[in-house]
Amino acid sequence: MEILIAKNAGFCFGVSKAINLLFSLLENSENKLYTVGPIIHNDQVVDKLKSMGVKVVKDISEISDNGQVVIRTHGVTPKVYDEINEKNLTFSDATCPYVKKIHTLVNEKYQEGYQIVIVGDKDHQEVKGINGWCGDSAFIVDSEEDVLAINTDKEKICVVSQTTITKEKWETLNNYLNKKFENILKFDTICSATSNRQNEAEAVAKIVDAMLVIGGKNSSNTQKLYDICSKYCDRTYKIETSGDLPPMDIKNIKKIGITAGASTPDWVIKEVICKMEELNKAENELSFKEAFESSLVTLNTGDIVKGKIIGFNNSEVFVDLGYKSDGIIKLEEFTDDVEFNPQSIKVGEEIEVFVVRVNDREGIVELSKKKVEAMKGWDALVTAFENKTPVKVKVIEVVNGGVISSVSGLKIFIPASQISDRYVKELQGFLKQIITIRIIDYNKQKRKFVGSHRVILEEERQKAGSEFWSNVEVGKRYAGTVKTLMDFGAFVDIGGVDGLIHLSELSWSKIKHPSSVLKVGDKVEVTVLEFDKDKKKVSLGYKKHEDNPWIKAATKYNVNDIVKGKVVRLVPFGAFVELDEGVDGLVHISQISNDRIGKPADVLQVGQIIEAKITDLNLETKKISLSIKEVNPIPSPKKQEAESANASGEGAATEEEVPTEHKEEIQNTIGDVLGNVKIDAE
Predict the structure, then answer these.
(1) Is 210 in contact with 235 (CB distance < 8 Å)?
(2) Could you give the CA distance from residue 472 to residue 495 in angstroms, rounded to a whole number?
(3) Domains defined for the chain, CATH in brackets
(4) pTM for the whole thing?
(5) From 2, 62, 112, 126, active-site residue
(6) DSSP H helix total and E strand total for the chain
(7) Sequence-ordered alpha helix ranges (H) in 406-453
(8) What is the pLDDT of residues 515-570, one digit of tens each?
(9) Burial class (CB in 10 A: 0-12, 13-18, 19+), 566
């Protein structure tokens, strides 16, 4: 008789974790232990725990003040947590990580205004617990009638599932929900271990003559396994212990399959196998015990094996190794990355792990992924040292004298003198950066490595420099980084070579220091103005042709235009007037006034706004000639004084100023004088 055993028969990682927790508490806790309801749906396990001192209660009020509560795998409502806290009881949470995730999801969507719908059995403790996280407001559906009975005025619907239902039921009920509601947010929260177990059970049931499904009479997932297997195998038997085995004609069974619910302990499975051995006496037949044992891998401390991630929480990762118990990796043993986020873990991913400890009695297999990476990483780094191969690392810590970097679970010290090809005063800027280094030393006994980023930078710079000098041309543009600012200009790294942008090439307007235009670290585009390969010198231009103010002036100004400007400089021969930033025109001294003036400063001052006419425009020589006197000539100082004096009433009186009664007397007097003058002349 050929025996086919489902690989995932027996405890799932959630149940295994809960049972291990209780056994650990029984050994180490001085408090009396309680569970609110059975820890799992398996009477054999519950009875064994009772015999060891674990008491099952229905309500928190039944627990003594010095008691310690263990939350069952099915999870509980928020009300239970409140009651525990109100009574100041110590508690340990053994809620299955998958169920815990549903609690968080349902509560979050409930707070966002969604109507929660749970696909599952309304009488199951897991479903009752989930409903508590949305204020017991969920609609629980297990049939088309349940869907039709939903009555809600909420537009947004969120659907989750009991972890142990079948995929078929999930899909069927969602089809009904789609017909009733438009805006549905669905989360398939069926446990992946449950799905795998059901798929394996179906595959085995299709090809065997008889099928055994082992599990507790109240176990929902065991019942689902039985329902699935019954569809494909007429002789499917659901049993709780070996004592429930029905009479079977072994001779007429060529193939027999076996699976077990998630809450079925391995010792119950083995008891069933032993009982089957008694029935199967034929010498050529393979015993169930041998089949079961042969289906399991053998694990020893120190082994490096492959496994598949089947779940995780905030402290542990659970791995299926093909062993009778799932492996556990503590998060600190999963990776050396200080910024690692557990949410990045991918369920179903195959990983390689180191077996730290195997405890069959407790069903514990401790694993480390980090140790495997470190073992492989050591050999890789030694090879990199020998071959002078570059290695990418992440800087994780700044210490005295340098930084610590990490790769493959190993730490590498990089001295401050080796972190850059330039002096670095502050090392914090390298923290969390990924850089390329070369291993320059290592100590096998102390298991220490020393790396250098500087060596890599110098090699890259030398290579880039050689390439630059081979291809450099006047007028060629380069992208660069500002490295240093000096009074006379800025030095820019253009790829292995530092070029100089002179102060005059930084801006079209006059500046006093490069810092008014650039700062260290700026990314810039520059043009090669001239170079000397022998002296390894490069002069660079930064000003853009299109930004030349004289180019703009060509489109803005014409001869005979009347313009306004500000006097910016006075010289003996005239005044310079700023029309635009970077564009000055000259008013010759002869074009300031119609009168003769000694110097421009006699009639103009710096900062004064004047109007002038453009008399000549030569953009090639960058010269603009202006005339103030053709627009509004400025009088000479003497004329200004005379006009000022006249304005104040000094000098001869005008006709208008002589009183009317004296005009005739004055005219006669003038006539007499003129007459006398005439006689004398004769």
Answers:
(1) yes
(2) 11
(3) 99-190 (3.40.1010.20), 304-372 (2.40.50.140), 388-457 (2.40.50.140), 472-547 (2.40.50.140), 558-637 (2.40.50.140)
(4) 0.41
(5) 126
(6) 16, 32
(7) none
(8) 988 998 899 999 999 998 888 899 998 887 767 888 788 888 999 999 999 999 99
(9) middle
Tell me the torsion sign for CA atoms 407, 413, 414, 416. Answer: positive
Closest to 258 in 3D by CA, of 4, 588, 513, 628: 4
For the beta carbon of residue 88, count every other beta carbon within 10 angstroms: 7
Give 491-516 as a 3 state SS string. EEECCCCEEEEEHHHCCCCCCCCHHH
**DSSP code per residue over 557-575:** --TT-EEEEEEEEEETTEE
Range among 58-67, 77-86, 505-514 rated most confident: 77-86
What stretch of H or E contains 83?
helix 78-86
State whether residue 299 is helix, strand or coil. coil
pLDDT, mean of residues 569-582: 91
C-alpha–C-alpha distance, residues 166 and 146, integer Å: 17
For 26, the token pair is 């029984």
Q: Which amino acid type is present at position 372? A: V
First to last CA, the chain: 173
- Looking up tokens 């929660």 gives 116
Smallest Cα–Cα separation from 422: which of 451, 465, 392, 453? 453
CA within 13 Å, CB half, 516: 12
CB atoms closer than 10 angstroms to residue 415: 15
Tell me how far apart the alpha carbons of residues 367 and 304 are, in angstroms, rounded to a whole number: 9
Write out the H or E segment, with its range, that includes residue 663.
Answer: helix 660-681
Instruction: Give the pLDDT confidence of 223-268 residue by residue, as tens digits.
Output: 999 999 999 999 999 998 888 888 777 777 888 889 988 888 888 8
- The H-or-E segment that residue 329 falls in is strand 327-330
Give the C-alpha separation, 167 to 161, whole Å: 10
Task: At 175, give phi and psi (nearest 5°).
Answer: -65, -40
Alpha-carbon distance 518 to 458, whole Å?
25
- Using CB atoms within 10 Å of the CB of residue 71, give its burial: 0 to 12 exposed, 13 to 18 middle, 19+ buried: buried
Amino acid at 30: E
By the 10 Å C-beta count (0-12 exposed, 13-18 middle, 19+ buried), 671 is classed as exposed
Is there a catalytic annotation at residue 661? no
446 phi, psi to nearest 5 deg = -90, -5
Phi, psi at 158, each rounded to 5° = -115, 125
In angstroms, the CA 98 to CA 318 distance is 12
H-helix segments, 406-561: 454-471, 549-556
User: β-strand 364-368 against 402-407: which pairing, if any?
Assistant: unpaired
